[in-house]
Amino acid sequence: MRILSPSKNLLLTITSIAFAHNINAQDQNLTLNQDTKFEQLLNEKRKINTSINTNDTYRIQIFSGKSDEAKKTLSDFKRENSSIDGTIIFSTPNYKVIVGNFKTRIEAERNLAEIKKRYKSVFLLKPGK
After folding, report:
1. Which CATH number does 57-125 carry?
2. Where does the record locate the signal sequence feature (predicted)?
3. Could you state, in order of their start, the residue ranges of all structural domains in the chain?
4. Is the pTM of this model over 0.70?
């Protein structure tokens, strides 16, 4: 192996720097055309996410069991109580129907008494649970 002389080293270094300096990768501008409905949907989702806060409200569980029965229970509940929100949560191995979003325990217990008349295994879920 031959050792390069200092002048060849200098020439090789300058040439490498010149080539590296002229490399311009991806200088193009990108234009994204997106449907306006997509942005509207994202805004609606953001509003819903900020309004859902399950850590500081009381909720009532009205059912725990199979998926089909949970869906039927929730639809029956919503038909009877249109003013109270409800959702289905999967907790292995059961589907749970959770209703309400009550700020105070008194409000939750009043609704619990009414809901107990129609559903058999009903109990109150405390905040943070």
Report:
1. 3.30.70.1070
2. 1-25
3. 57-125
4. no
Neighbours of 127 (CB within 10 A): 15
pLDDT in tens, the chain (129 residues): 566 566 777 777 887 777 766 666 566 788 888 888 988 998 888 877 766 655 678 999 999 999 999 999 999 999 998 889 899 999 889 999 999 989 899 999 999 999 999 988 899 998 875
The burial of 63, by beta-carbon neighbours within 10 Å (0-12 exposed, 13-18 middle, 19 or more buried), is given as buried
- How far apart (Å, rounded) are the C-alpha atoms in residues 86 and 95? 13
- Coil vs helix vs strand at 125: strand
